[in-house]
Amino acid sequence: MIPYVDIHTHIVQKTNDIFIYNCSDFHEIKSILSNCSIGIHPWNIQSKEQIDDWCELFEQTIFHKSILCIGECGLDKTKPQTFELQLYACMKQFKLAQKYHMPVIVHCVRAYYDIISLYKNVKCTFPLVFHKFSGNQHVVQALLAYPMYMSFGCEICFRPFPEFYKDIPVQRVFAETDNNTQIPIAEVYSCLSRALNIDVEILKNQIFKNYKVFIQPCNS
Ligand SMILES: [Zn+2]
């Protein structure tokens, strides 16, 4: 049986499927047995010192076997007060991902091109997934030049699907539940299969393959 892959969730799940749990802090890591990601969310940024301390702590914790990805980190232009600091935090986390060969889970609001520029400027090569992707078709075209993925959550079950979704290569797609407890990952898959106009079993197979490619840096 091919498992479902929930690429980004804030809820520890009792399942045989695959999920990447987003750890809220370093204390939690010690008790987490599932694969997890850890990062500084752009909403939680306060100061340069806080970011530097976080990065130091990350380097002390990195060898914990549960940590699979950095994230969620990223940029959010609905919080313009801290944008300069967000850029600094994101740059530092991208550098860590590059140093330790880790994939990254990105939170991005109205800043897709900023993330792509940062990725280029830091000379990144790791795979990156935009969680809750909401970019337009120009963004899709721009990010396909890099090992970047688009993840879709339960919103895809409620909003009308933009027509260009059908052109998104399925090799670059993930699904997630994020912090939703009502819509199981299987349902997100079926909504996504309708949006992309592809059979759900084919989608399941492909996302599992995508996952193996996505986490490859950790195994090399
Ligand atoms: Zn999240």
Q: Could you explain the architecture of this structure?
A:
The protein is of the alpha/beta class and 220 residues long. The protein has a single domain, classed as Metal-dependent hydrolases (TIM Barrel). Helix content is 38%, strand content 18%. The chain has eight helices and eight strands, in the order ββαβαβαβαβαββααα. It has helices at residues 26-29, 48-61, 83-100, 112-121, 137-143, 185-196, 200-214, 216-219; strands spanning 5-9, 18-22, 36-38, 67-76, 104-109, 128-130, 148-152, 173-175. It has an eight-stranded parallel sheet, with helices on both faces. β2 (18-22), α1 (26-29) and β3 (36-38) form a beta-alpha-beta unit. α2 packs parallel to α3 (83-100). It is globular, with a radius of gyration of 16 Å. Bound molecules: zinc ion (ZN). Zinc ion (ZN) binds at residues 8, 10, 22, 72, 131, 178.
Please supply descriptive tags for the structure shown above.
220 residues; binds zinc ion; 8 helices; 18% strand; eight-stranded parallel sheet
